[in-house]
Hints:
Structural class: alpha+beta
Radius of gyration: 16 Å
Oligomer: single chain
Number of domains: 1
Distance between the termini: 41 Å
CATH architecture: 3-Layer(aba) Sandwich
Number of helices: 4
CATH superfamily: Gcn5-related N-acetyltransferase (GNAT)
CATH class: Alpha Beta
Helix content: 25-40%
Largest sheet: 7 strands, mixed
Strand content: 25-35%
Shape: globular
Strand order of the largest sheet: 1-2-3-4-5-7-6
Order of helices and strands: EHHEEEHEHEE
Amino acid sequence: MQIIQCGESYSPQILAILNDAIVNTTALYDYEPRSPDSMAAWFAAKRSGNFPVIGAVTESGELMGFASYGVFRPWPAYKYTVEHSVYIAASHRGRGIGRTLLRRVIDEAQSQDYHVLIGCIDSQNPASVALHKAMGFQYVGTLRQVGFKFGGWLDFQLHQLILTTPRNPLDG
Length: 172
């Protein structure tokens, strides 16, 4: 397994992983699969915010999973907080790839002087909850019945990791 920075050439594989999560899980609270065109805007937002897209690939270049982060809330005082995502292709789950990618997300966030990482996890995803706990994230609350998918109400858990960065935070 190699860990790489994914460029737009990985759009089809990222899209396949996202769409599988949309159609088959509650990891994303979307109903309809995303279009290939949506990936251009997604990558543009990542470039604009200088947010990494980190991939775990096989020697042959197959994307096994990816992780990234982005804006948590759009107001200036949240500038040191980001919300992250980790998605693993169904055929590669349970192999420690999520742990490797999340470790890299933490390292990237520290190197970019962020202070807090937020994980928003569906309460029906015990593997993700366990991963975040193992990586030092603290459970900070549940928003009950905020989503509706697959005929039922979904609870949304918030997990956070407070980093030691930045050394000299500034207002404004």
